[in-house]
Specification:
homodimer, 360 residues, 7-stranded mixed β-sheet, two-stranded antiparallel sheet, 12 helices, 11 strands
Chain lengths: 360, 360
């Protein structure tokens, strides 16, 4: 998940702050309150800066359409509807997924401070962006964070099946280090995140043949055919098993949408998603000393990175490192976008009558 | 992970109870107390019955040798050395992994009953058998169980590396259903568990070429070469990421062995392992109603199994289903063993002077 995974015909570089300000203006113009617009803008820009374009501002169009058509509630407020010990059940009340996500991870962190660990089960939510954002919140709070979520569309078949019955439900874990960047594992249970296929379709860029199958079950490099076909689970039946488990703990656990109840984020923008997530935290200080742990993490990262490399490999990376490098570059030099995405932003700016000074 | 994965030259079928009685006698004869011998016997026989021969009685030899040489403590007792809210840190005091595992999952279940969720971090442990056993304990208690563990030998390289720096650290989740068998996902982060290579080496059976690489990095069907080479992560860099995360939450979290501290279960039988695990439970009743949840699980299993099948597929399976089928067959007809494993048991029976009536 880095810039290198994408194929841009024409590029443009824009400072992070400028993108953030535009995004905040855009969501406020659409009717969102300032605090929530900040959360959304921060999240989307962070994804782009980290090179995870599939989850960045290219999603403005669908998010705004979903607000307009009632698929999402632009000023919905998440709420704890059940609380027991170190657990909570949150109803997102169809608020923007990032708003529900921030609320729920804050709660998971608070509960883990009090009880050492926590499990926050979330229903009535939507697409919440990247797992990485919430994992970083946990790591910054001295926690090991776990994030599990159902995906917003069924794109995978069970192992041995041919029907779109499962999402490539993403999950991840976040771990703090001492001087190194946090370890942030954020993966979908497919070979690639479907957002990458959406992004490739938008720029009409060919995709690697191992990403997806067409409707007949054949590998394809055509992003249009891939968009309508199925995505393969990573690691074969193991990825299938993980995506089902993820669906269970994210959605079936609390009665959120699963299977035929899942609607398509893109194709059914007026329909409520009722997405489910699960956030867990372990307070490292409850188990061991956080300072000692962070030192051990630094040592572990050094150990792996100093391992013998294969002939064609320049560097061994740990999970989240490539994204952290991308983020630092973006902070220094701006985020590199394909012109098609910026053109979309300009159309959105016009439609939502954003003041010219904020335009990208 | 079923009988079909193995290639036995000559087979023999033995009733479950008979194998259990022999195993219990054997470990008691080696100096273990009756309760612990029961735990070990139950665990190993269950693994074989479920078709997971890699984790069954074929391990008697190495376990007994480790007791004899001081690698494991045959009557060690696990102990809680730190407790905070819904978390606990357990020191296994080098007791048999199954003893530490049962103790720790019982504790995780108790804590989750009280707090809704729990995290039990375990240090000073050993090879604990299959994750599936503890996951079933959690599911039987109305919990969603999570089990994470460091492996007992480094057999994988980091992505882009060539050195054996990581184990194929196994993990899994267990979930109860209403009328269906529990969903038990139990997987190593390699394409296959290394125990399968050990088993194939024992019977000198060829292995599929995608399981392992030889020392030069070439795929091999020779179990001897695979034994000394490296095992590939499942799903490429994603499996690498997961195995590192698993090492972090199982071992680095509490200071158990990681990296160069990891000893080889088989090659260094006199050395203490100091293995780490993490057990987590979510009490389903804390989030939603257990009865309703189990019904939703039954529906979810039906939904997947009733999906359209690929041309050459007879049935779609859910995680743990093949093992549950194997277990039912074994209960009815006995466990099918390769003669080599039974011959080992007879040698062990002789060595430990087991009464003839218990011999396999």
């Amino acid at each position: 998940m880095s810039k290198a995974d994408y194929y841009f015909n024409e590029e443009i570089s824009i400072p992070i702050d400028k993108v953030y300000r535009f995004e905040k203006e855009l969501y406020q113009a659409a009717g969102m309150n300032e605090a929530d617009a900040h959360s959304v803008a921060e999240h989307l820009v962070e994804a782009d800066a980290r090179g995870v374009y599939s989850h960045g501002i290219q999603r403005n169009g669908i998010y705004l359409e979903r607000f307009r058509l009632g698929g999402n509630s632009i000023n919905g407020r998440p709420e704890v509807i059940k609380q027991f010990g170190a657990t909570a059940l949150v109803d997102g009340h169809n608020a923007m997924g990032m708003v529900v996500g921030n609320y729920s991870m804050d709660l998971a962190i608070d509960l883990a401070k009090k009880y050492g660990t926590s499990a926050v089960s979330i229903t009535g939510s939507n697409h919440f962006g990247t797992c990485a954002h919430y994992l970083q919140m946990a790591a910054d709070a001295g926690m090991i964070g776990f994030v599990w979520t159902i995906n917003c569309v069924n794109i995978m078949a069970p192992w041995g099946g041919t029907e779109r019955q499962l999402g490539n439900n993403p999950f991840g874990m976040g771990v703090p280090c001492k001087t190194k960047d946090s370890i942030i594992l954020d993966m979908a249970t497919s070979v690639v995140a479907r957002g990458k296929i959406v992004m490739a379709r938008k720029t009409n860029s060919p995709i690697p043949s191992e990403w997806a199958l067409d409707l007949d079950g054949n590998p394809t490099t055509d992003p249009e055919k891939a968009y309508w076909g199925t995505v393969q689970p990573f690691g074969g039946y193991k990825g299938y098993g993980l995506t089902f488990i993820n669906a269970i703990i994210s959605a079936i656990l609390n009665g959120s949408s699963f299977g035929e109840e899942i609607i398509d984020l893109y194709e059914e923008p007026g329909k409520v998603q009722n997405s489910g997530h699960l956030f867990q935290c372990i307070n490292i200080d409850a188990i061991d000393n956080l300072t000692d742990f962070k030192k051990r993490m630094d040592d572990a990262v050094d150990y792996l990175k100093n391992g013998k490399k294969a002939a064609d490999v320049e560097e061994i990376y740990v999970p989240g490192e490539l994204e952290a490098i991308s983020q630092k570059k973006a902070k220094a030099n701006g985020i590199i976008y394909p012109v098609e995405v910026i053109q979309e932003c300009r159309e959105q700016a016009e439609k939502y009558q954003i003041a010219k000074e904020f335009w990208l």
